[in-house]
């Protein structure tokens, strides 16, 4: 059974379909692994064993009858602690929401349950999802799979760790400024940022509702495609025959060159693999990106603070001071400035899509930095601010420009290569990702 802990969700599903894997035994294997792992309490805020066992039993009966609901029917999944779960606390990593127990599941959790998935529990996260580092002194800071002293990446920190440490085959997270892709990259996983509005956020704890997106963190691109379909209740992208031959890729030169050495080297090596596999790769900067990225102070903190102001100011002492400061950066901003920024952003999005229309994807390092020292982040304010901005700088390109994005692990630990594609092009991006994944092996 131990081998199941390192298998992909797709392989587990195929094992269930063939009768080689019993969903109930599979569920027990993961619950036992979580309970026995020294990392378990730092990864899971709480498990849902009763729910998991009931769902696994139902999946086992469907498998016996040949009536499976989908390729991930019976496969265990972890959920970031901002997806509402009926009867189980959903606290979004914050003392402000302690003992908050929803009465119904988030729409995506309900949809995934109808696809036969087994809910293992809720994973730790950055407080209210407002940081890319994954540090949370209030609840727990999950471990980084490559370096016990390094930050795990956030805000879907426990989500990434649950897969990286073999405590879930697939994790569901959220991405407002990079919160799926940064922890995925820092833990050598695949992570998908979906297009704003594609996957329902109903029943999830908000951060910036105009930018919030949901997506999976997985071991493989195939699992990522299966997980997206599970969230939506649809069909997974067809990855068969995916190839890089005839594709055109653009390396975003300035954002790549201004990343630190290891992420730069990782992307350079990846690009050579892509060229060898038949892709045509150009390299240049796109001025519209800078125009859009200059708007970030007006696009994130003001809306986040407007959403949480009353709750925060009623008990600010309950918050990690670095997160509190990030929210308060949105105070006193003129509404007219925010609205004007959104209009400029919309214009920049259209201009960007026109400028890169001939390319299948834009490439750059997922994060401009490697994972920083976790202990120092908790005590050194300036270090925290600098590293957090850099951790999310590259991923935010996709959020601000309204794109979908996929990060893939490279041969350099904790350094991912990110591909960005036009909005609602997830299926095409996943096919491209499958071909990239093959080239990187």
From TrEMBL:
Domain Amidase, first and last residues per copy: 26-430
Record-linked InterPro entries: Amidase, Amidase_CS, Amidase_dom, AS_sf
One Pfam family this sequence matches: Amidase
SUPFAM superfamilies: Amidase signature (AS) enzymes
Protein name: Amidase
Domain of life: Bacteria
Signal peptide: none
């Amino acid at each position: 059974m131990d081998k199941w802990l390192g298998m992909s969700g797709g392989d587990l599903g195929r094992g269930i379909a063939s009768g080689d894997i019993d969903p109930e035994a599979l569920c027990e294997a993961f619950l036992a692994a979580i309970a026995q792992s020294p990392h378990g309490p730092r990864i899971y805020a709480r498990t849902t064993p009763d729910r998991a066992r009931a769902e696994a039993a139902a999946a086992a009966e469907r498998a016996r009858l040949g009536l499976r609901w989908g390729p991930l029917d019976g496969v265990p999944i972890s959920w970031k602690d901002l997806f509402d779960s009926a009867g189980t606390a959903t606290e979004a990593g914050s003392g402000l929401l302690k003992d908050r127990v929803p009465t119904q599941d988030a729409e995506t959790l309900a949809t995934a349950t109808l696809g036969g998935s087994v809910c293992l529990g809720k994973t730790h996260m950055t407080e209210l999802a407002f940081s890319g580092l994954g540090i949370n002194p209030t609840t727990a800071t999950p471990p980084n799979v490559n370096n016990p002293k390094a930050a795990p990446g956030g805000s879907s920190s426990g989500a990434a760790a649950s897969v990286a440490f073999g405590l879930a085959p697939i994790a569901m997270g959220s991405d407002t400024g990079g919160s799926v892709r940064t922890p995925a990259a820092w833990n050598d996983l695949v992570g998908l940022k979906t297009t704003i509005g594609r996957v329902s956020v109903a029943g999830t704890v908000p951060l910036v509702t105009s930018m919030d997106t949901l997506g999976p963190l997985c071991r493989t691109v195939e699992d990522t495609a299966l997980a997206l379909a599970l969230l939506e209740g649809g069909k997974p992208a067809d990855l068969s025959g995916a190839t890089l031959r005839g594709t055109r890729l653009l390396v975003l030169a300035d954002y790549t060159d201004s990343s630190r050495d290891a992420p730069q080297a990782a992307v350079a090596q990846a690009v050579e693999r892509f060229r060898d596999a038949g892709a045509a790769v150009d390299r240049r900067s796109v001025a519209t990106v800078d125009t859009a990225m200059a708007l970030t102070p007006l696009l994130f903190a003001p809306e986040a603070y407007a959403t949480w102001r009353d709750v925060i100011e009623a008990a600010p002492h309950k918050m990690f001071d670095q997160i509190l400061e990030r929210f308060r950066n949105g105070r006193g901003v003129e509404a007219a400035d925010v609205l004007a920024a959104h209009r400029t952003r919309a214009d920049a999005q259209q201009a960007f899509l026109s400028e890169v229309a001939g390319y299948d994807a834009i490439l750059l390092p997922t994060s401009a930095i490697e994972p920083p020292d976790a202990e120092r982040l908790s005590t050194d304010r300036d270090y925290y601010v600098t590293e957090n901005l850099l951790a999310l700088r590259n991923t935010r390109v996709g959020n601000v420009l309204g794109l979908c994005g996929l990060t893939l692990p490279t041969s350099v630990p904790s350094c991912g290569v990110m591909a960005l594609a036009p909005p609602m092009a997830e299926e095409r991006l996943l096919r491209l990702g499958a071909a990239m994944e093959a080239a990187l092996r």
